[in-house]
Amino acid sequence: MLKGFVSLFFFLQIIGIIGSLVLATIFLFQEGDLDMPLKLNGTTIEVIDFPTKIAIFFVCFGYAAFVYGIYLFKQILELFSQRIIFDDRIILNFNKIGKCFLATTLLTAIPVFILEIISENRTSNINFTSGGFDSILFTVGLSLFFMVLSEVFKIAKTIKEENELTV
Amino acid sequence: MPIIVNLDVMLAKRKMRSNELAEQIGITTANLSILKTGKAKAIRFSTLEAICEILDCQPGDIMEYIPEEKKL
């Protein structure tokens, strides 16, 4: 059930990233005012200049890191379904997922934040939110959770091996 | 690991085969092999007791502590 849901989500993300790359390429070769306003992580962009292009570039990388994280999670679920639990691949993938989600947060949040600061007409306010699924704190927390999970699995693997080698 | 298992020496002294010992202790030959080759991470007191009883020896006769050489 979960595996099927993650597979579907991954498939939708693949479509999303292809669409984003096509749009990003169009925006990278565009200069000046946009016909339709673009929203980059909640920030409305109306003029395409060099900093905006860099921000789009970083956000695309962040999105790619997120999709890679989902792909790794899908791999973990496949290993779980084969009853492979305390394995080096699982430990490595959990750690990689944490790093990917952290990279996604940093690659999307920092360029957009800088863009907001340097833009002449600041349209959005700085939001400090303590919770919610869209906050930076939540995604950073999620990344750290995956990294901790990787460490927990590493410890569990050692204990399991020691238990198996107890005569 | 600085703990060396000399079970094979004791088995040779008692002229007993590994599978015989495994059978008498009630463990698999694979587990006894793990113990003999020094791959074991731990040994249960019950297993140690059984080995000592069957081989008529002390735990020190089948185990030895040799400190590891300090790396420079």
What can you tell me about this protein's structure?
The complex is a heterodimer of chains A (167) and B (72). Chain A is mainly α. Helix content of chain A is 71%, strand content 9%. Chain A has helices at 2-28, 50-81, 88-118, 136-164, and strands at residues 32-40, 43-48. A two-stranded antiparallel sheet of chain A has the order 1-2. The radius of gyration of chain A is 20 Å and the shape is elongated. Chain B has a two-stranded antiparallel ribbon with strand order 1-2. The mean pLDDT of chain B is 90. The two termini of chain B are 18 Å apart. Chain A binds chain B through residues 161-162, 165-167, and chain B through 27, 31-32, 34-35, 39-44, 47.
Report the average pLDDT across residues of chain B.
90
| Unreliable spans of chain B | none
Question: How large a portion of the residues of chain B is in β-strands, by DSSP E?
Answer: 5-15%
- How many H/I helical runs of chain A? 4
Greatest interface: A-B, 5 and 12 residues
- Give the strand tally of chain A: 2
Instruction: Tell me which CATH architecture of chain B applies here.
Output: Orthogonal Bundle
Radius of gyration of chain B over alpha carbons? Answer: 13 Å
Largest sheet of chain B: 2 strands, antiparallel
Total beta strand runs of chain B: 2
- CATH homologous group name of chain B: lambda repressor-like DNA-binding domains
